[in-house]
Every structure is written in structure tokens, then in C-alpha cells.
């Protein structure tokens, strides 16, 4: 069973959170509410999120301050943030949002279809990264276990073939996603994230190829998961 991605919704108004849930429910992912910046930071301590939808205007800790805290934490600094605001103070206000680390800045009222499409891209990227980490962990277990996974009776060649097939499936999905981003002229941040994913896939493919008979006896280094 594929684990669902978590999406963090941050807004001090319950009606706005309800509206976001109605818009994003079609994605069939786990939606987590936070009614303040402090509550959002608390949720980020324990859970991993694919993307954060963050209201700019909130009492106490506003969206900009909340984003600054998120970007300072090593655990959460790479989570995409989409700012939502009911007002538009011009280019300077928008620039402040991007400077705070947002991948997008959307003024209310927004088009529900556009918002859902933007969020779905980051959910897909998150899921591909999760699959890549799983394949890398399995390969690392193979290398450390001397050819057999714990509790597995398959021969090394068979396991390598299985790993290669799983990786090929992820590679195919990543390629399709990259083409979709190119076709839709998506946000630069989404394109950059997809490119980073493809580089990690290439590194993992090289590591698998190095394990094939006749390609050398040294154990390959695995791609970084950062």
C-alpha cells in the first residue's frame, strides 16, 4: 500500500482551512490543519510534509516569520511553501514572500483548479523522492549484508534484477513528470526539484550497474539523499 503524502494547511481562520480541505480533498492525500504559525512549527517537529500552504496574515507569528523558522530548521528547510494572502501590496510584498523561501505566492481569491494543480506537482515530487529513498535503502542493505537482504533467500543476481526493475519504474515516472513540467511551463522551483530527483536517480542507477558481474569488484558509493 502506497503511503499518502501529508499536506500542511496553515490559516488562523477555520473557514479558510475548510475551503482548502474542500479544494484539495480530490488529491486523496492526508491534510493536516494548523491554526497558527506556532501550531505549524509543532506539527513539523514530528511529521514529514510534501508541501505547506501558509497564510501570510495571522495574529502573532505571521506567515513570513513562520516561513523563516521553517527554513532555518535542517529537517524542514527543503519543504516547498506556497504563500496565500488576501491582500496584495504590490511587487515589494510579493518579493518578500519569495525572499522568505516560498516557491509560490498566490493572492485570494484564487482559482481552485490552479491551486490544486500546483499542490499536486509537489506531492508527486515528494512521492518520487520517497520511492528513491526506499530503493537506496534496500540497495545499501544489500551491500552491507554481503549480497542478501535480511530475511531474504534470493540470490544476489535475482535481487539485483528486482532492484533494477523497481528503479526503472521510478525512472519512468520521473521522466514523465519532467515532461509534464516542461509542457506546462511550471514553476522554476518545481522544475529544479525534478531535476534534482533525476540526478539522484542517475547516481543510484550507476551504483546498481556497478554491482553487475564484470563491472568491477569495488563497492559503489550510493547517491546522497539530501
From TrEMBL:
Keywords: Coiled coil, Phosphoprotein. It comes from the Bacteria. Residues 160-187 form a coiled coil. Residues 6-123 form the Response regulatory domain. The modification 4-aspartylphosphate is found at residue 55. Pfam families: Response_reg. PROSITE patterns: RESPONSE_REGULATORY (PS50110). This is Response regulator.
Amino acid at each position: 500500500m502506497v503511503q499518502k503524502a501529508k499536506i500542511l494547511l496553515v490559516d488562523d481562520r477555520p473557514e479558510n482551512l475548510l475551503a482548502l480541505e474542500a479544494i484539495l480533498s480530490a488529491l486523496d492525500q492526508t491534510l493536516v490543519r494548523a491554526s497558527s504559525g506556532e501550531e505549524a512549527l509543532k506539527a513539523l517537529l514530528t511529521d514529514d510534509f510534501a508541501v505547506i500552504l501558509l497564510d501570510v496574515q495571522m495574529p502573532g507569528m505571521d506567515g513570513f516569520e513562520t516561513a523563516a523558522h521553517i527554513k532555518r530548521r535542517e529537517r524542514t528547510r527543503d519543504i516547498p511553501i506556497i504563500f496565500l494572502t488576501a491582500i496584495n501590496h504590490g511587487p515589494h510584498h510579493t518579493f518578500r514572500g519569495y525572499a522568505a523561501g516560498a516557491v509560490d505566492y498566490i493572492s485570494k481569491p484564487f482559482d481552485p483548479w490552479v491551486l490544486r494543480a500546483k499542490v499536486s506537482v509537489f506531492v508527486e515530487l515528494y512521492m518520487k523522492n520517497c520511492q528513491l529513498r526506499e530503493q537506496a535503502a534496500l540497495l545499501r542493505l544489500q551491500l552491507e549484508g554481503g549480497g542478501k537482504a535480511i530475511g531474504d533467500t534470493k540470490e544476489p543476481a535475482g535481487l539485483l534484477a528486482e532492484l533494477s526493475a523497481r528503479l526503472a519504474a521510478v525512472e519512468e515516472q520521473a521522466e514523465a513528470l519532467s515532461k509534464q513540467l516542461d509542457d506546462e511551463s511550471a514553476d522554476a522551483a518545481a522544475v529544479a526539484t525534478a531535476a534534482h530527483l533525476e540526478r539522484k536517480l542517475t547516481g543510484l542507477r550507476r551504483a546498481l550497474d556497478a554491482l553487475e558481474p564484470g563491472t568491477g569488484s569495488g563497492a559503489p558509493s550510493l547517491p546522497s539523499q539530501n
